[in-house]
Fold these 2 entries.
Entry 1:
Amino acid sequence: MSVEVSVVTEVTDELVGHLNRLLPQLSSSASVLTNEAVRDVVESDASTLLVATRDGALIGMLTLVVFAIPSGRRAWIEDVVVDESARGTGAGEALTRAAIDLARRRSVRSVDLTSRAARVEAHALYQKLGFVTRETNVYRFTL
Ligand SMILES: CC(C)(COP(=O)(O)OP(=O)(O)OC[C@H]1O[C@@H](n2cnc3c(N)ncnc32)[C@H](O)[C@@H]1OP(=O)(O)O)[C@@H](O)C(=O)NCCC(=O)NCCS
């Protein structure tokens, strides 16, 4: 069966349970998601939470963040992860293509993302879809 990508509009215990199975596969230091935390994402005007399903099973997620700044409307892709059991079957590509389509429809000038060097599969995915490396430093101020 093919992968379906949809925008999350409703937060249920079941959804949060699925997301809590996915998130540790992205980051071992991620906190357990509460319904409130997921609602914060889903109800945000800036963030769009996309999920990939196959045969009704949730197998992946991605969040697109769109924001306006003086140089134009821009976007970030964050928290992309596909369940280990479903990798290599097109879900990551379907999620990323859906995010790019959404960004295009919202008149975004560019879509950025970061990915650690060790994430070989992710780099191959993004490059396949046309993302190019930017020569810039990424800084973080931790609060
Ligand atoms: C990166 C990730 C999201 C890819 O999802 P996926 O559903 O397995 O990827 P897809 O099946 O859609 O593959 C799409 C493309 O990604 C690349 N890719 C995926 N798996 C790969 C692998 N094991 N080796 C090399 N390239 C790979 C290929 O370019 C592939 O295209 P192809 O099938 O034409 O070769 C998934 O591996 C994952 O969740 N990894 C752990 C978390 C992570 O690294 N997230 C990204 C954070 S930036």
Entry 2:
Amino acid sequence: MIAESVLALPGAFTAEDLHREVASRAPGIGLATVYRAIAVMQDAGTLTVVGHRENSALLAACDRSDHHHHLVCTSCASVVGVECPLGDRAVAAGGGHLVTRHEITLYGLCAACRARAGR
Ligand SMILES: [Zn+2]
Ligand SMILES: [Zn+2]
Ligand SMILES: [Zn+2]
């Protein structure tokens, strides 16, 4: 049921967004239950953290397994996968650090929202 609610949400959402959607279908399901379901779906790889909004993680369904990043529309929350802008550069310029992991999220307006905003 919670997985169905995920499909009903367009683009990226927070746990609170998902809880609101779930509660509209099944009142009485608590936020803790939603968090547990999110953890299960993250373990299964069907849900990924694609960014952040204020202090909440933004989640989205993503079935890509290759290394990539996400572009999140700040207006409609649509998400698209983008290639890694760092490519194979594992050593950061400057102090000679070896970069072992990184997280990049790009935020902006999608084409549809730009057209709507006239930008
Ligand atoms: Zn993705
Ligand atoms: Zn948009
Ligand atoms: Zn990358």
